[in-house]
Amino acid sequence: MSSGPSTYVPQSGLTRWLDSRLPLMRFAHDTMLTFPTPRNLNFWYAFGAILTFCLGVQIVTGVVLAMHYLPSAAVGAVPGSSNAFDSVENIMRDVNYGWLLRYIHANGASMFFLAVYVHMFRGLYYGSYKAPREILWILGVIIYLLMVMTAFMGYVLPWGQMSFWAATVITNLFSSLDQVTGGLKVGTHVATWLWGGFAVGDATLNRFFSLHYLLPFVIAGVVGLHIWALHVPGNNNPLGIDVKGPQDTVPFHPYYTSKDAFYVGLFAILFAFLVFYAPEFVGNPDNNIPANPVVTPSDIVPEWYLLPFYAMLRSIPQKLIGVLVLGGAIVTLAFIPWLDTSRVRSNRFRPLMKVFFWIFVVDCIFLGYCGSQGADAVVPGIPGLQLVWLARLGTAYYYGFFWLLMPIVGLIEQPKPLPDSIAKSVLGASAVPAE
Amino acid sequence: MATSTTAEPTRRDFLYIATGAMAAIGAAAVAWPLIDQMNPTAAVLALASIEVDLTPIAMGQVITVVFRGHPLFVRRRTPAEIAQAAAVNVADLIDPIARNLNLPDGAPATAANREIKPEWLIVSGVCTHLGCTPTAHEGDFGGWFCHCHGSQYDVAGRVRKGPAPQNLEIPVYSFLSPTRIKVG
Hints:
The complex is a heterodimer.
Chain A: H1 13-19, H2 24-33, E1 36-38, H3 47-65, H4 83-93, H5 98-125, H6 134-156, H7 161-172, H8 178-181, H9 186-195, H10 202-231, E2 249-251, H11 252-277, H12 307-315, H13 319-331, H14 336-339, H15 351-372, H16 387-412, H17 422-427
Antiparallel strand pairs in A: 1-2
Helix pairs in contact in A: 3-5, 3-10, 3-11, 4-5, 5-6, 5-11, 6-7, 6-10, 12-13, 12-15, 12-16, 15-16
Chain B: H1 11-36, H2 42-45, E1 50-53, E2 62-67, E3 70-76, H3 79-86, E4 120-124, E5 135-136, E6 142-145, E7 152-154, E8 159-161, E9 173-177, E10 180-183
Antiparallel strand pairs in B: 1-10, 2-3, 3-4, 5-6, 6-7, 7-8, 9-10
């Protein structure tokens, strides 16, 4: 899992004994201490560590919240409420520090997605998906997909209005299969199977809780593979050129352990600000209303991190195609190692692609805005123009970026000259000893 | 593991395939209970029917009742709404099928096929797009508007504007008396 032969030397009788039976210390030494890492990694490369921190926070707070949460949709102590909703209120009001743990967990999901989006855009900008890191990238897409599923099921657990209707809308996505399976009604059967009934209900809540508890550990497992796949070729870097020798690298510890720790600290400050000063900022007030299966809230919106995909779904006036566009937007990510035809990884040296990349970032944010508005919203200031038309343009750019621009720009673009080596670029030609 | 060097299949090949096939069947037999446990339980399958008293419903009013865990709309239509529903040409509809469980499967979505008595429209309150509950008396067609994704239904519960693919479903129901219906 590391480049080059191991440099670990056991220092005591006990570690020598352990090393010849289970070389755990050697593994940790080679992967976390001496691992050769490009010397030019910048701020944007700290998000791997930040994401590890987020996963840890979510698992620790989640395990303790599960000690107090009750996954039951049966009517609770308050009429119109449910045991699940009441148990969340109990956590917020009566459990010692329950409010803190739940606010960390709920806002932690948002911080997790904030970090993963920066991490993904970073990989996109510096071409970290390109050979030989295709598997690394695809494992990342799988982790992202697992995160979306975990976050969605977690959002359902408080059993408020948004929880219930999010569960209804998302599970109904599968019913679109009815449109291609004729009289078999495969989609309806799949939805019924997911619900454990004929509507979202108690059975649905219970299984979502079970899976919400399971999936983070699956994520942790895939993260292990992700890091394994990272350590075979080693890190990409902002220049996108390969490491050519020891002069291009520094040991992971203390250089990147300290750098990552610093940025995790900054991230934690932002996290704490949200938890302590704006704990409901990213939440939806409607989720403080107990689930009501016969009244849909007038504006149902997902959490902010799923809004761009929601906008794509709504921009298509045909059910099955809308669902396919939604799913395809994530599946597309797995193909980009082969869609990008450029031989240059980093956008620093790709003048044309760099422009399209930043348009893509703005497009994703714009789609998020479209998703946050009502179904019949108009463009502000232009009464006749429905926002959905702009969402369609945004959706077209999203797909066009990957399926048209990536292959074409790579062929026609004239990249800038690449530096000879990381060391020369960082230290200047004079500071580098002869290779 | 010995490999066969003869052209003829050997006894070992047969045993190898038979063992693999048996293991696959065993794995499937174990997997099925794990999958099927997620389907509705016997208690959920024991569905009940409900009765609805129509007397408190005013002209033009829509009430929502719960039927099998889902909302069900009961709408007392005005003469103008009845005429509006009847004036629609079936050929103009997104979904030309009645979706009325009281009728044969392929019945056309005429106004007459969407009702038993014109004054009373009984339709499922589950939007056929993604399952939200549409809001009555909104949208361009006088029926329902779904706030989730913008589908619109007319005064006969027929979809008139996407993304919903189908008309609101009409459950099996009958009039027990002029002022009382039984659904299911």
